[in-house]
Amino acid sequence: MPMDRYADMENKLRILEDLNMMYIRQIALSLQDSDIQKKIDHEIRMRDGACKLLAACSQRDQALEAAKSLLTCNTRIMAYMSELQRMKEAQVMQRVARRSDGTRSSDAGPMDDRLPCKGKVAISDLRIPLMWKDTEYFKNKGELHRCAVFCLLQVGGEIHDTDMVMVDRTLTDICFDNTIVFSEASPGFELRVELYSCCSEEDYSAGSAPRKLASKLSSSLGRSAGKKLRVAMDPGACSPTSNGGAVTLLLPGHAVAGPKYHLLAHTSLSLSHVQDSFRTHDLSISGNEDCSYWVPLYGSVCCRLAAQPHCMTQQMMSGCLKVKQLGGDPQSWTNVYGVLKGTNLFCYHRQEDMEANVEPAFTIAINKETRIRASEKDPHSKAQSICISNQYGGEEVTHTLSADSHEETHRWMEAFWQQFYDMSQWKQCCDDLMKIELPSPRKPALVTSKQGSLYHEIVIDTSDDISTVTDILTRRMQELELRSQLGTSPPWMSLFEESPGGPRTPRLARHSPRSPHRLPHSPLSPLRCPWPGLLSSDASLTSDSDSPCSTSPCSRHRGWAEPLSSPRFRPRTLSLDAKLSTLRGRGYGGVLQCSCQPPSSSSLGPIPAQCVPQATLSCSSSTSSNSSSEGSHSPSSLDGTPFSRPSSARRSLRNVRAKLDPRNWLQSQV
Amino acid sequence: MKGPLSYLQPGRNTKVSDQSETMSFIPGQPVTAVVQRIEIRKLRQGEHLILGFSIGGGIDQDPGQNPFSEDKSDKGIYVTRVTPEGPAEVAGLMMGDKVMQVNGWDMTMVTHDQARKRLTKKNEDVVRLLVTRKSLEQAVKHSMM
Fold this sequence. Notes:
- With 670 residues, chain A is of the alpha+beta class.
- Chain A is 40% helix and 19% strand.
- Among the domains of chain A are: 35-85; 116-201 and 257-309, C2 domain (Immunoglobulin-like, Sandwich); 314-430, Pleckstrin-homology domain (PH domain)/Phosphotyrosine-binding domain (PTB) (PH-domain like, Roll).
- Chain A has helices spanning 2-31, 34-56, 60-101, 134-137, 210-218, 223-233, 245-250, 310-313, 351-355, 406-426, 466-485, 506-511, 514-521, 531-537, 539-542, 546-558, 570-573, 576-585, 589-601, 611-617, 622-631, 648-660; strands at residues 119-129, 147-155, 158-161, 165-167, 173-185, 191-199, 262-269, 278-282, 284-285, 300-309, 315-325, 334-341, 344-348, 362-365, 371-374, 385-392, 395-402, 667-669.
- In chain A, the strands form three sheets. In chain A, strands 14-13-12-11-17-16-15 form a seven-stranded antiparallel beta sheet. In chain A, strands 2, 3, 4, 6, 7 and 9 form a six-stranded antiparallel beta sheet that branches. In chain A, strands 5-1-10-8 form a four-stranded antiparallel beta sheet.
- In chain A, β12 and β13 form a beta hairpin.
- β18 (667-669) of chain A pairs antiparallel with β4 of chain B.
- Chain B: Residues 1-20 are annotated as: Disordered.
């Protein structure tokens, strides 16, 4: 049976894998390089973990993340492997050379040649623009073809990966917010940037969004969807370089089920690309449109590549010196403590000053324009002195340094030569210190739920009640009323007077003239004072269905005199949303928004959670209140109040808009 | 459209039946549930006929927000509110019931609007619902023990 054969093959592959792991470990052991050994062990453990996670997880997002870590681990292991092989080769070569020469050839190393200092290289703000066909961009029907992408960055043996980003046709650029810092890079570094992607088609399970399910039920699979599915189900069809050719044998990723990433594009950056600002570089794209993992790239990548050589950030040399400025008073040597760092030689009066971060006494510039030479033996002093000449403006200023002993002088000369050499190697990085922002430990980005709605993330304190929100609002109203009494009423207050433009029913005309007069005399209960009249007046607008209609009958029956003070009713029957919608109907939206801001950040009862965020955040759209009032769960009792029916025109409008609002769980009264 | 459902219909009052299964929904498999038949006479309110309850759910709605369903992927139609003293309450409908059929029309695989329309047909005075609820299952289980 074919199934057995596959199982057999899988077993064989797994055995090969284990053997390879053992081989790698053996090499590491034989080289007795505990550092690499530890690293390899660590990566192998991570890889095992990722494989297990991949096998165990069911969610697509988890699987994608696990596959990403698997790819990173594999690449790292490959890098360590190659390093090990190199070291092994070097060792073997050394032994061979020694045997043939009889002398140790290790001296032939770069002792005479100078080695440039290492530095920190940081790449940040990676942005890859996309180029969707305009037909795709504006297509509203059909499924969103999504891909998961991430970048792998490699300098020598150091490999880092960025976070994963989901790409679909609503995105114009792929942005990676990570800042990746490579700490020990030589000036001849090669930063390899590789973009991997994996298509992320929704599988047709119960977990998919309701709308998609409905659309799938109603329409059959189109040609493009079918093609994508076919490709997705056929792993490795478009992946000539999945995980690198040789690696597939060594670390068979195929043995592991789950999503597989494919190399989509790559580029190499080096010292010439380093700049303190953003630059655009070209990408080499592998793969074509027919691949499942295809994302239409514009062909370039923008990023900020900065480098901080150690000669700019660290103290290269320090010691006691005697400095004399030429042209100044001869024989006036100043004793200083000199520190060579970056493009300057800082001279402090004492060593303690430097440690205390006191300003140096003076600073001598050491840069590309500086000329340094050892002068002849000064008859007055014992040792050689060093002359440093700089051009300041049109003038040439020369300082003479003298150290305590011949060895000190020699060391200082060495330091200066090394500094010059570093500057010549690191070129533009030594003009000015480039800023590298270390990635701060920030919390992982909020993973939005399947609905992707921010409203589901709002923290709601269940102890608080809708009444607190209404209290805040009424208090604000009261303040404003007081102000209006003083004559400085805000412009929107006029809306509470007879406003000719507002949508009104006969009931409104009856009540509204009373409201401004009523308010100053209203009794203590704050809830009563501004809201009831407005609620009743707009009953027909808001009472499209269950809960808001509770407001209108209540107030209609109870009228003005009847206090809605019974605490039983206050929080439940008068939904905040209904109140807001009435005010909104009079164009109150703008001001209400500001008064709503403070409550929105704090707590709201769990039940009206759906109503309030919409009201606070989108005050302008009046129908959202209608729909959200539909969506409220409050099972309020109506005490036999008559049901009111909206007109059919308003109802159809409400229906359409409510249906388009994905946050709602619609309820209809029948 | 009559869906591929097989019901156990013990009649108006719950009775012992041969099989009782859970309410879980497995796509493609026939649904088995213990149901209660509820007959609601619509009440005339001006020019509208009302039943006196509210429904929620549907295949176009988000099932995770349904407070009454046990299985949060259940996209069926649930009774979210029953107006006191209304026709539905009088007929025995309870909040949290899942509506399986209305006058023979399936309600387990409908959109929210389709469900609402099937309940509010103007030419029908009476709706006969088949509803199911957890307590029915338990009652049957207990009586079988």
